[in-house]
Amino acid sequence: MGSALLSQWIDGPEAITVVDPAGSEVPEGVSLVADRAEIADRRFDCIVAAVKPQLIDDILADYAGNLAPGGYVLSIAAGYSAVRLSKLMGDAPVIRTMPNLPAAIGRGVSGICPGPHATSAHTGHAENFMRRAGSTITVDSEDKLDRVTAVAGSGPGYVFEIARAYAEAAMAQGFDEDEARDMVLGTIGGAIAMASEPSAASLEDLRNSVTSKGGTTAAGLAALNGDGGLSTRLHDTLQAAYDRAVELR
Ligand SMILES: NC(=O)C1=CN([C@@H]2O[C@H](COP(=O)(O)OP(=O)(O)OC[C@H]3O[C@@H](n4cnc5c(N)ncnc54)[C@H](OP(=O)(O)O)[C@@H]3O)[C@@H](O)[C@H]2O)C=CC1
Ligand SMILES: O=C(O)[C@@H]1CCC=N1
């Protein structure tokens, strides 16, 4: 996720340094170091925590000394609380954000939650930073950010899985893999683009406009969600993701 954001941040005015022990490639103009020891005496206005939440305790405390006076920590980690991170880093100002993977093409949806000691200047900077990767929603509690995580952060995973299963079903109707993928992604993309038009009707009305009485869509929808099974499954999906975020706090 860090490299997805980096790809949208590189055109900005900031000088960016990436610490990556694996030494992955970084875009031109970005400095790469393999070990924090190489930047031990440097100070940064913003430290982005982009490691797995399970690794934060082991990694981030060392970076407390790398924060410039007036700087802040921007964490993209799911669940791990800003309160805990701030304490870990010597009461540093912390803002949590929850982006999602389409940030890689500037189409992300990012939640933002100011945490301990974060000033309005820090929040403004974080909002500006995340807006470069798509749209943003600022929330006023960490609990709400964990719910953004369940809806949007993990969301592309649900969408890719739904599209994959949809394409698999298309293949069972006799289409080859490429045909199935093209038809399914074209259909999903077209429908989403139409629903995203400023003057678009409600999602329910749009669904109804496809559904001729006694026709094929009505038959398909009855099988898809006639018993409310799809609605229940999606409710359970979001709840499970939220519950996991709570476990990671
Ligand atoms: N994937 C997603 O869609 C989203 C992820 N997030 C959050 O982003 C964070 C990263 O997740 P994700 O990108 O999926 O995971 P990845 O494992 O792909 O990325 C984590 C990166 O951190 C690197 N790393 C490991 N140890 C260190 C270290 N000591 N110092 C610096 N870097 C280190 C890893 O290197 P190596 O591979 O060598 O271990 C890896 O490149 C998580 O906190 C996650 O909750 C948030 C929103 C969406
Ligand atoms: O699966 C995860 O934990 C991360 C956070 C949101 C998306 N990916």
Automatic annotation (TrEMBL):
It catalyses: L-proline + NAD(+) = (S)-1-pyrroline-5-carboxylate + NADH + 2 H(+); L-proline + NADP(+) = (S)-1-pyrroline-5-carboxylate + NADPH + 2 H(+). It is found in: Cytoplasm. Its EC number is 1.5.1.2. Pathway: Amino-acid biosynthesis; L-proline biosynthesis; L-proline from L-glutamate 5-semialdehyde: step 1/1. It holds the Pfam family P5CR_dimer. The keyword Iron-sulfur does not apply. Keywords: Amino-acid biosynthesis, Cytoplasm, NADP, Oxidoreductase, Proline biosynthesis. InterPro entries: 6-PGluconate_DH-like_C_sf, NAD(P)-bd_dom_sf, P5CR-like_CS, P5CR_dimer, Pyrroline-COOH_reductase. Residues 142-248 form the Pyrroline-5-carboxylate reductase dimerisation domain. PROSITE patterns: P5CR. Catalyzes the reduction of 1-pyrroline-5-carboxylate (PCA) to L-proline. Belongs to the pyrroline-5-carboxylate reductase family. This is Pyrroline-5-carboxylate reductase. It comes from Qipengyuania qiaonensis.
